[in-house]
Amino acid sequence: MSTITRRPKPVSSQTSHPSETDVRAVIRKGLSGPVDESADMAEAQVKLRLPAALLRRVDAAVKAQAIKTPRHRWLIEAIVEKLGRESV
Amino acid sequence: MIVVAGGTKGGSGKTTIATNLAIMRATLGRDVLLIDADDQESASDFTVLRNERDTVDAKYTIIKLTGVAVRTETQRLKSKYDDVVIDAGGRDTASQRAALTVADVLLVPFVPRSYDIWTLEKVAALVREIRSINPSMQAYTFLNRADANGPDNDDAAEVLRESEELTFLDTAIGYRKAFGKAAAQGLAVTELKPGDEKAIHEMQALFRAVFSVKPANRDTVTSRMQVEGV
Fold first, then answer.
1. pLDDT of amino acid B225
2. Long-range contact pairs involving B40-44 (C-beta distance under 8 Å, separation at least 24)
3. What pLDDT digit, counting tens, does each position of A29-68 carry?
4. What is the number of CB-based contacts under 8 A between chain A and chain B?
5. Touching check for A68 and chain B: CB below 8 Å?
6. Is the pLDDT of residue A12 over 60?
7. pLDDT tens by residue, B1-59
8. Residue A87 pLDDT more than 80?
9. Which residues of B fall within a CB distance of 8 Å from A34?
């Protein structure tokens, strides 16, 4: 058996062992609910005020994602996640 | 094996394919779980109809799931069944994505019409994205509800063959009334009496192609299908 082997290639942690958070981020990009949601999908605007420190934590979390999504999307996903947890 | 009938276009026959594959697999004595992950719940309706019959032998278990639960429940239940078949519906839903994260095989039927074929790029993009999570998932296309004659089958097949993400299976299923008749009775086309030999032959060819797939080895699959003449 040869004692010389090829240097192992670095493996992306995302493709070898994606975290459950990464998996769910991909899943959540899909549509949910019945087909005709046009009325519910109309956007409403809300002004969000939050402490700067909290916003920095959000930005750090957004930056740390293996699969990049905008902060706006991250915040929506966080809201949907909480609503789902509380079965609203 | 976990097989998903999916895609991003409605009306391509995913439920028919999923229910037929589940029944044909169960006919072999396999313990099969059919997961209805389509909002339209056609596979569930089909199964209600099927279970009202006393004369069918092949039984499978069906559950209805949506969203992330399609992933988590499939992971939890897969060891209890020989095979899992998931009807994922015809939109890019969270349910379909959840199914694909745990799938061994994605099977995408295409009707040989432009509006259907035009969705190939979206399906390919979805497959690319899912492979970042589930790199061993194998993805296949085939023609469903194919024409009896005319150039559309060949034209559609040519487009499908060009995909780098999805492998084209040369196992077309024709547009045959037998599938509709069978579905209306809660039967697979292979169980219909009197039977439609062409429909049975085509469905069996697809069945062999799907279940001869060896996970994570596309070259082996292709050569095997060529040997079997599928």
1. 38
2. B40/B15, B40/B89, B42/B15, B42/B87, B43/B15, B43/B18, B43/B19, B43/B87
3. 998 766 554 555 567 788 888 889 999 999 999 888 877 7
4. 50
5. no
6. no
7. 999 999 999 889 999 999 999 999 999 999 999 999 999 999 999 999 998 887 777 78
8. no
9. 39
Report the predicted TM-score, pTM, of the whole model to 2 decimal places: 0.74
Secondary-structure percent of chain B, ordered helix, strand, coil, rounded to 5: 45, 15, 40
Rounded CA separation B100/B127 (Å): 8
For residues A29 and A68, is the Cβ–Cβ distance under 8 A? no
Q: Which residue has the tokens 């192992």?
A: A8
The residue in chain A having the minimum alpha-carbon distance to the alpha carbon of residue B101 is A23
Least CB–CB distance from B39: residue in A26, A28, A35: A35
Interface mutation vs chain B, best among A21, A22, A23, A85, most B CBs within 10 Å:
A23
Closest CA–CA distance from residue A3 to any residue of chain B (Å)? 29
> In this structure, are strands B61-64 and B83-87 parallel, antiparallel, or unpaired?
unpaired
Torsion, Cα A51 A54 A55 A60, to 10 degrees, reads: 160
Report CB contact under 8 Å: B130, A28: no
What is the number of other CB atoms lying within 10 angstroms of the CB of residue B28? Answer: 12
pLDDT tens for residues B113-130?
A: 998 999 999 999 999 999
Choose the mutation target among A12, A21, A26 for the interface with B, i.e. most B CBs under 10 Å. A26
The rounded percent of chain B whose pLDDT value lies above 90 is 82
Q: Are B166 and B160 in contact (CB under 8 A)?
A: yes
* Residue-wise DSSP of A36-64: --HHHHS---------HHHHHHHHHHHHT
- Its ipTM equals 0.81
